User: Fold these one by one.
Assistant:
Number 1:
Amino acid sequence: MLHESSLSEAADRLWEELPGHRVEILNGSIVVTPPPDGSHQDVLTWLIEEFASVGTRRAGLRYVAGIGLWLPTGPDDYAVPDFSLVDADYKDALVEKNCYAPHVFHLVLEVTSSNWTNDTATKVDIYARAGIPAYLIADRKHDEVLHYQNPIDGKYPDPVRYKRGQTVPVCVPESVGITLGLSVDTLLDGDD
């Protein structure tokens, strides 16, 4: 299939042929993720409720699930984070293919699925290179939450790791003053 068309066209075709799957181009390779399970989706619903409760929209930000993030790692590269905290006017930063420029993203969160190494390795690198200020991973494979923040020269410092029973403090961005604590257990399990 790839020899007949561009990488981008091949990704589009896969997206059409695999309803419910997430198709991304990471570091010049097509990555297809199967539809999420119920716990995965419960986490996203809970995050929306949590961010709504602290006045995120009044502070000029939006919380969205599943929008494209255009990446600087290749000419066709894009990711589709599970959850993102973005500028209220993020739609003005449309690049192409329903993907938005990295500068409007303040936080991205991934809940690991069967291809968890993409979230815990590949995306750590590409989100840092894109300059995303905060990256949270609900790593269900290893039963922990990783919090990467403030990339320097395209690399995140080592993450802060959170275990069950702990709360992940989130203050993104500091200039806006949105602060909340996210339960590790709920981030991993999707229920209260």
Note: The helical segments are 7-17, 38-53, 116-129, 184-189.
Number 2:
Amino acid sequence: MDRERFWQVVEVARAQAPGPDDAEGVAGLVSAGLAARPTGEIVAAEQTLWDLMADSYTTPLWAAAYLINGGCSDDGFDYFRGWLIAQGREVFERAVADPDALADLPVVRACAADGGFLEGEEILGVAWNAHLAATGERIPQGACTIRYPAPAPAWDFDDVGEMARRLPRLAGLFLE
């Protein structure tokens, strides 16, 4: 399954979800959509998912997740990027290109106002769950490779001045 088809499955799930900002609901619908496809496409969707995770493995996006979620561990960053995938292609690509653009999203603004956090761990298992539902078996071992790039050097995410300089709009929401 190529990226275009993967994103189509996500968009269909978002349209069917009771709340498109609900990553868990979107994940369940993505899994169901994938489970209806041929097994080879499900396995390919696993690779596509992890390619997107690798594309979004950047220091600036991690800093944005740190601001939005009030801190962000390694696992927390994975779950944040899962949430980001659940938001659909347009939001994902815009955020990867410019993490500060996340400040435009109403759900991010709501987090700033009420102290919520954004994560979508369930997205990380959509192909796995779809394959299990469709075949009764796990995705074959070695069917997917994860190639994270070396991230750009990190800066101190607790340095208010540095965060404000690098992510001014998000810092304005979360540090003031």
Note: The chain has a mean pLDDT of 95.
